[in-house]
């Protein structure tokens, strides 16, 4: 598989994702500049964490107007794999590719910690390598990671099994402990925790590796 | 020059964590008569003089950039800048 | 505003307001220029000759520090020092203080402190890999101090998190003397892949000076002189000196500079950041180092504000700006390169051969002075020094603690802000971005691996200023050795040091004695363990209404871990592991946290530090770690053995059962040169054989969170969970 | 109930990093007639009905908490809340 890691001005987990793909699952990966016009030839798009455009205004809000975004939308609408992590998740919600919004943590502070997540839905392109309700340890590092959506959206998310990860302990005050959601079609995932920081035991956890492996499993199935 | 003042606030249904934090800070300073605090954003946009067609621009800028309709509402005022 | 004339400046002694003394002004006008300096020129001298830029009071003392080893590629004098770590790689590091800006505007002061130290690293062509910080505040008792702490911590996190560098270590201490004069020291470590680095020089006739980055505003004008001023409570007029940071622009600037030096080194001759005293300091230093002259045209400088005069532009400390010296044939490539990063880059001047520093503004020559007079001709002062009276009076005093209940004292000590967990603060720093952090804040050192190799870098900030206050020389030695023990305990070999020397007014002989003697202490310790001081920073005049802070040298140490398998952390790993104390314990209570807890103030002298013994212990621990004998290792510092034991249990919720010959009081003694280690039972004899020094077998790690302790006086069993709660929650409670 | 609306903006001399970033975003969206963008904060404080002495409270709250006098200025309006 060939992945694109989108590099917005201010993205700062782009290389972390790049290495996760190159070394963690040994697939092809390229950094793609925010000014690029095309995602032709890629099988998956990864939107990294960081502070795109300084996260000034609202996190992710300005990135939405970068040239590459049209292509990301096309890519997502064609049912291809799009994964947004942290700032990437914020961008995907700002874009409307994912429901809800991410707002300032309940405790009004940035928080960096490794937290336990529950895999709520293990039947997605991103989680088929986990077992249902598996507890995994993944780092978080965000100031604006509190997932918010209105009640109607929440019942839709639940009805469609779009909630993929939940925090065991609600670290930031998210609605229903939500840490990651997909779109209806389940080809777009956004999550605040950083699986790319958890792909080697020496970094504290390798529980994130299965997420990337799941994408490969899924693609193999689709291709056959 | 035209000056547009834009106010963006959180929808009532969204918990305003910052507003809450500020309220408790105000109380701890001893001002107990403050019953509620909301925090929002305030923008000042200045438009070139020769441009008259800006109202629809302002709407678009607010809708597409300054406010996130999932969580926020906005209003604005237009005035002549000194 | 009309500028005062040269004559007015002289007659009305206006130069004094800018920090120049009569004799300095005299020297400039009669010897150097042989005419009266005009307004702009006087401004340039006043900042360049400030302590902050010139080190005129401290140079003589700083020369005492060792700065050579087989690893040193560049030492003091550059933006940052460089140490060879093999395989054509080098580490680059430096620390910087931002005390005064942070006292005035805590968030932005701390944030721009971080931004500034990062620029020092990437201007050397190095990729920054980690940040640390050392913070000192007054006691957490009033709202004002808590606000200050919150803002400083938020500023540090705000900048580091946004730019995407992990903050992997640091320290926070609370003492009365910092209440109105907090210390905010930041350190950055970088990795240089091409040891053929760029010097910060501007050489070669007709080469061009290029300005890159944020626009210039009136930010921080006279920040450098202001950093060298004492504080009084009349601080309102200083408020115009506030600089604000933009980490987003700095990220672009960092990526661009690292890339241009890596990919196109032939385009540029020199690169330097605009730090204190902005444009003048960076360009004058570059030209002076190269033996060149310089012409600048200020009309080309990107400006954020209107109607700035030459003085303001030259002295502005607007953040996120760099200057480059570029070969004319490549200038279009350079401008185009930065444009791709969406950064302003413009040619603002040119190198000349006449060694003059010439500035044009609005087509007028506003400055024409010898370059070297800004950087080289600064008078060096030899200050009077005298041993502080307290040291003479209290020479023989010994604090004798009084322990009624070991359990109570133990829990009380764990809750002291200087000892309790600082997680409340450091968890707001992203410590893992870049996915290289092997040891996050909370152990002895932060450890970051070097991707693609087996190597890792360990780093720590240490400064127990209480010891330095009681005995500057020994305290200085301890600061170095404590840092070294932290590196060693993490599995590293100490290889070099950076420092921030935070002191009071050097014109006060006692304060100067403290500076001089503690630097001698630092120097002797660094020599002993072969850790040259390759960069650093001096911050004097840390006083508030004439009361000085404790002499507070901050030691930032970097260690090399040649094999990441050797990375060791301080937490106990498994029950049944054997616990040993390495090093002898004596009655070292002067300067201890126990003295502060029971006596409420510092008093007495420190015992001399046996450097041979210290080095032996460090070497033995390193050997034991490389022979894979050690499962956990913790250095003993504040609160002594009791605190070290407790801290080791918290992460994995274990406990211990120990029996010691020490008295209950000695459980809190702060004798130096000690480590707490655990080893697997099967390694008992190998470990004991290796340790050719005093070691004491204490007991075993147990699976439940209980502390079972038998001292020479008593036996207690206390709850580890209660201890953990006390230690973990103390700061959060105080911050409410 | 009294409603106090507080507007906090950066002093003119202070770098407005957010405003700059927003301005470039607006330009990249094609609205080139916007010449300047400033970003500030907006607060709504609600005071208990029985309290009349709030003007000096508001000043103190703004000075000590809502605005940072080193870099910001503020103004406010008082009105009757619905
Ligand atoms: N300001 C800070 N920033 C980051 N980490 C910190 C800070 N203050 C303390 N820490 C971390 O907390 C741990 C304990 O600090 P400290 O008690 O100073 O250790 P030691 O006594 O071993 O030097 C260390 O890992 C340190 O890096
Ligand atoms: Mg330690």
From TrEMBL, chain A:
<keyword id="KW-0315">Glutamine amidotransferase</keyword>
<feature type="active site">
    <location>
        <position position="196"/>
    </location>
</feature>
<protein>
    <recommendedName>
        <fullName>Phosphoribosylformylglycinamidine synthase subunit PurQ</fullName>
        <ecNumber>6.3.5.3</ecNumber>
        <ecNumber>3.5.1.2</ecNumber>
    </recommendedName>
</protein>
<dbReference type="GO" id="GO:0004359">
    <property type="term" value="F:glutaminase activity"/>
</dbReference>
<dbReference type="InterPro" id="IPR010075">
    <property type="entry name" value="PRibForGlyAmidine_synth_PurQ"/>
</dbReference>
<feature type="active site">
    <location>
        <position position="194"/>
    </location>
</feature>
<keyword id="KW-0436">Ligase</keyword>
<dbReference type="InterPro" id="IPR029062">
    <property type="entry name" value="Class_I_gatase-like"/>
</dbReference>
<keyword id="KW-0547">Nucleotide-binding</keyword>
<keyword id="KW-0963">Cytoplasm</keyword>
<dbReference type="Pfam" id="PF13507">
    <property type="entry name" value="GATase_5"/>
</dbReference>
<dbReference type="GO" id="GO:0004642">
    <property type="term" value="F:phosphoribosylformylglycinamidine synthase activity"/>
</dbReference>
<keyword id="KW-0658">Purine biosynthesis</keyword>
<comment type="subunit">
    <text>Part of the FGAM synthase complex composed of 1 PurL, 1 PurQ and 2 PurS subunits.</text>
</comment>
<keyword id="KW-0378">Hydrolase</keyword>
TrEMBL record, chains B, D:
<keyword id="KW-0658">Purine biosynthesis</keyword>
<dbReference type="InterPro" id="IPR003850">
    <property type="entry name" value="PurS"/>
</dbReference>
<dbReference type="Pfam" id="PF02700">
    <property type="entry name" value="PurS"/>
</dbReference>
<comment type="subunit">
    <text>Part of the FGAM synthase complex composed of 1 PurL, 1 PurQ and 2 PurS subunits.</text>
</comment>
<keyword id="KW-0067">ATP-binding</keyword>
<comment type="function">
    <text>Part of the phosphoribosylformylglycinamidine synthase complex involved in the purines biosynthetic pathway. Catalyzes the ATP-dependent conversion of formylglycinamide ribonucleotide (FGAR) and glutamine to yield formylglycinamidine ribonucleotide (FGAM) and glutamate. The FGAM synthase complex is composed of three subunits. PurQ produces an ammonia molecule by converting glutamine to glutamate. PurL transfers the ammonia molecule to FGAR to form FGAM in an ATP-dependent manner.</text>
</comment>
<dbReference type="GO" id="GO:0004642">
    <property type="term" value="F:phosphoribosylformylglycinamidine synthase activity"/>
</dbReference>
<keyword id="KW-0436">Ligase</keyword>
<dbReference type="InterPro" id="IPR036604">
    <property type="entry name" value="PurS-like_sf"/>
</dbReference>
<comment type="pathway">
    <text>Purine metabolism; IMP biosynthesis via de novo pathway; 5-amino-1-(5-phospho-D-ribosyl)imidazole from N(2)-formyl-N(1)-(5-phospho-D-ribosyl)glycinamide: step 1/2.</text>
</comment>
<comment type="similarity">
    <text>Belongs to the PurS family.</text>
</comment>
<keyword id="KW-0963">Cytoplasm</keyword>
<keyword id="KW-0547">Nucleotide-binding</keyword>
<protein>
    <recommendedName>
        <fullName>Phosphoribosylformylglycinamidine synthase subunit PurS</fullName>
        <ecNumber>6.3.5.3</ecNumber>
    </recommendedName>
</protein>
TrEMBL record, chain C:
<feature type="domain" description="PurM-like C-terminal">
    <location>
        <begin position="208"/>
        <end position="360"/>
    </location>
</feature>
<comment type="function">
    <text>Part of the phosphoribosylformylglycinamidine synthase complex involved in the purines biosynthetic pathway. Catalyzes the ATP-dependent conversion of formylglycinamide ribonucleotide (FGAR) and glutamine to yield formylglycinamidine ribonucleotide (FGAM) and glutamate. The FGAM synthase complex is composed of three subunits. PurQ produces an ammonia molecule by converting glutamine to glutamate. PurL transfers the ammonia molecule to FGAR to form FGAM in an ATP-dependent manner.</text>
</comment>
<keyword id="KW-0658">Purine biosynthesis</keyword>
<comment type="pathway">
    <text>Purine metabolism; IMP biosynthesis via de novo pathway; 5-amino-1-(5-phospho-D-ribosyl)imidazole from N(2)-formyl-N(1)-(5-phospho-D-ribosyl)glycinamide: step 1/2.</text>
</comment>
<dbReference type="InterPro" id="IPR036676">
    <property type="entry name" value="PurM-like_C_sf"/>
</dbReference>
<feature type="binding site">
    <location>
        <position position="499"/>
    </location>
    <ligand>
        <name>ATP</name>
    </ligand>
</feature>
<feature type="binding site">
    <location>
        <position position="94"/>
    </location>
    <ligand>
        <name>ATP</name>
    </ligand>
</feature>
<feature type="domain" description="Phosphoribosylformylglycinamidine synthase linker">
    <location>
        <begin position="9"/>
        <end position="56"/>
    </location>
</feature>
<feature type="active site" description="Proton acceptor">
    <location>
        <position position="98"/>
    </location>
</feature>
<dbReference type="InterPro" id="IPR010918">
    <property type="entry name" value="PurM-like_C_dom"/>
</dbReference>
<feature type="domain" description="PurM-like C-terminal">
    <location>
        <begin position="576"/>
        <end position="710"/>
    </location>
</feature>
<dbReference type="Pfam" id="PF02769">
    <property type="entry name" value="AIRS_C"/>
</dbReference>
<feature type="binding site">
    <location>
        <position position="537"/>
    </location>
    <ligand>
        <name>Mg(2+) 1</name>
    </ligand>
</feature>
<feature type="binding site">
    <location>
        <begin position="97"/>
        <end position="100"/>
    </location>
    <ligand>
        <name>substrate</name>
    </ligand>
</feature>
<protein>
    <recommendedName>
        <fullName>Phosphoribosylformylglycinamidine synthase subunit PurL</fullName>
        <ecNumber>6.3.5.3</ecNumber>
    </recommendedName>
</protein>
């Amino acid at each position: 598989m060939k992945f694109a890691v989108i590099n917005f001005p201010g993205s700062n987990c782009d290389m972390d994702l790049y290495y996760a793909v190159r070394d963690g699952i040994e697939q092809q990966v390229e950094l793609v500049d925010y000014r690029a016009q095309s995602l032709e030839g890629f099988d998956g798009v990864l939107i990294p964490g960081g502070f795109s455009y300084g996260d000034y205004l609202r996190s992710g809000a300005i990135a939405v107007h970068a040239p590459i975004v049209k292509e990301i939308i096309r890519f997502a609408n064609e049912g291809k794999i799009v994964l947004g992590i942290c700032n990437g998740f914020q961008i995907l919600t700002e874009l409307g590719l994912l429901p809800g919004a991410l707002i300032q943590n309940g405790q009004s502070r940035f928080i960096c910690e490794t937290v336990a997540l529950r895999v709520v839905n293990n039947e997605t392109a991103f989680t088929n390598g986990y077992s249902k309700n598996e507890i995994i340890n993944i780092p978080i590092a965000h100031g604006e990671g509190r997932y918010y959506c209105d009640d109607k959206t929440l019942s839709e998310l639940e009805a469609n099994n779009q909630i993929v990860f939940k925090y065991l302990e609600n670290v930031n005050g998210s609605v229903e402990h939500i840490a990651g959601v997909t779109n209806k079609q389940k080809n777009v995932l956004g999550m605040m925790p950083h699986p790319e920081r958890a792909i080697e035991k020496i970094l504290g956890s390798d529980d994130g590796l299965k997420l990337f492996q799941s994408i490969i499993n899924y693609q193999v199935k689709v291709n056959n | 020059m035209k000056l547009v003042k834009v106010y963006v606030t959180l929808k009532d249904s969204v918990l305003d964590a910052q507003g809450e934090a500020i309220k408790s800070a105000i109380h701890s300073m001893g001002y107990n008569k403050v019953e509620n605090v909301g925090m929002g954003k305030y923008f000042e946009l200045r438009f070139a003089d020769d441009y008259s067609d800006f109202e629809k621009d302002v709407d678009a800028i607010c809708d597409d950039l300054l406010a996130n309709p999932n969580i926020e509402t906005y209003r604005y005022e237009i005035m002549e800048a000194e | 505003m009309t500028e005062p004339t040269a004559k007015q400046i002289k007659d009305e002694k206006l130069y004094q307001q800018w920090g120049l003394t009569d004799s300095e002004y005299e020297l400039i006008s009669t010897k150097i220029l042989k005419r009266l300096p005009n307004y702009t020129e006087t401004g340039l001298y006043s900042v360049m000759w400030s302590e902050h830029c010139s080190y005129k009071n401290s140079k003589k003392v700083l020369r005492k520090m060792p700065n050579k080893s087989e690893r040193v590629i560049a030492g003091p004098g550059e933006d940052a020092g460089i140490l060879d770590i093999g395989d054509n790689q080098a580490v680059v590091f430096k620390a910087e203080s931002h005390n005064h800006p942070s006292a005035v505007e805590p968030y932005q002061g701390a944030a721009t402190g971080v931004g500034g130290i990062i620029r020092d690293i990437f201007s050397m062509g190095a990729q920054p890999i980690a940040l640390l910080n050392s913070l000192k505040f007054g006691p957490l008792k009033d709202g004002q101090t808590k606000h200050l702490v919150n803002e400083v911590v938020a500023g540090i996190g705000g900048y580091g998190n946004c730019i995407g560098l992990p903050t992997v270590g640091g320290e926070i201490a609370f003492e009365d003397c910092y209440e109105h004069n907090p210390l905010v020291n930041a350190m950055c470590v970088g990795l240089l892949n091409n040891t053929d680095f760029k010097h910060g020089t501007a050489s070669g006739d007709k080469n061009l000076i290029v300005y890159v980055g944020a626009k210039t505003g009136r930010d921080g004008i006279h920040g450098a002189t202001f950093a060298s001023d004492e504080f009084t409570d009349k601080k309102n007029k200083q408020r115009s000196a506030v600089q604000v940071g933009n980490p987003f622009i700095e990220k672009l600037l960092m990526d661009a500079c690292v890339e241009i030096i890596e990919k196109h080194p032939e385009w540029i001759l020199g690169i330097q950041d605009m730090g204190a005293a902005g444009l003048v300091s960076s360009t004058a230093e570059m030209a002076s180092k190269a033996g060149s002259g310089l012409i600048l045209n200020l009309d080309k400088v990107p400006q954020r504000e209107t109607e700035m005069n030459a003085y303001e532009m030259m002295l502005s400390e607007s953040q996120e700006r760099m200057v480059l010296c570029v070969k004319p044939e490549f200038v279009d490539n350079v401008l185009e390169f930065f444009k791709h990063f969406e950064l302003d880059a413009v040619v603002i001047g040119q190198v000349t051969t006449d060694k003059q520093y010439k500035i044009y503004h609005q087509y007028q020559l506003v400055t024409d002075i010898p370059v070297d007079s800004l950087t080289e001709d600064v008078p060096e002062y030899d200050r009077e020094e005298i041993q502080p009276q307290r040291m003479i009076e209290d020479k023989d005093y010994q604090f004798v603690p009084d322990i009624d209940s070991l359990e109570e004292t133990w829990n009380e000590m764990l809750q002291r802000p200087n000892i309790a967990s600082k997680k409340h603060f450091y968890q707001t720093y992203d410590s893992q971005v870049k996915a290289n952090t092997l040891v996050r804040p909370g152990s002895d050192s932060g450890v970051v691996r070097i991707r693609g190799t087996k190597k890792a870098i360990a780093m720590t900030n240490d400064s127990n200023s209480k010891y330095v206050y009681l005995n500057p020389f020994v305290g200085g030695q301890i600061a170095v050795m404590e840092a070294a023990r932290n590196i060693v305990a993490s599995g590293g070999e100490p290889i070099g040091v950076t420092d921030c020397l935070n002191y009071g007014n050097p014109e006060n002989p006692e304060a100067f004695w403290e500076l001089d003697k503690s630097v001698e202490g630092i120097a002797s310790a660094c020599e002993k363990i072969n850790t040259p001081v390759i960069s650093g920073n001096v911050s004097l005049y840390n006083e508030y209404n004439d009361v000085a802070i404790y002499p507070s040298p901050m030691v930032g140490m970097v260690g090399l871990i040649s094999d990441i398998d050797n990375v060791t952390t301080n937490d106990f790993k498994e029950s049944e592991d054997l616990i040993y104390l390495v090093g002898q314990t004596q009655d070292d209570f002067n300067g201890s946290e126990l003295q502060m807890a029971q006596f409420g103030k510092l008093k007495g002298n420190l015992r001399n530090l046996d450097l041979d013994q210290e080095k032996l212990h460090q070497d033995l621990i390193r050997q034991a770690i490389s022979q894979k004998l050690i499962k956990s290792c913790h250095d003993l510092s504040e609160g002594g053995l009791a605190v070290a034991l407790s801290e080791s249990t918290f992460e994995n919720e274990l406990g211990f059962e120990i029996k010691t010959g020490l008295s209950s009081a000695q459980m809190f003694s702060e004798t130096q040169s000690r480590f707490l280690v655990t080893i697997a039972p099967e390694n008992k004899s190998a470990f004991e054989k290796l340790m050719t020094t005093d070691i004491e077998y204490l007991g075993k790690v147990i699976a439940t969170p209980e502390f079972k302790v038998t001292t020479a006086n008593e036996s207690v069993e206390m709850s580890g969970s209660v201890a953990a709660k006390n230690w973990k929650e103390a700061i959060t409670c105080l911050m409410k």
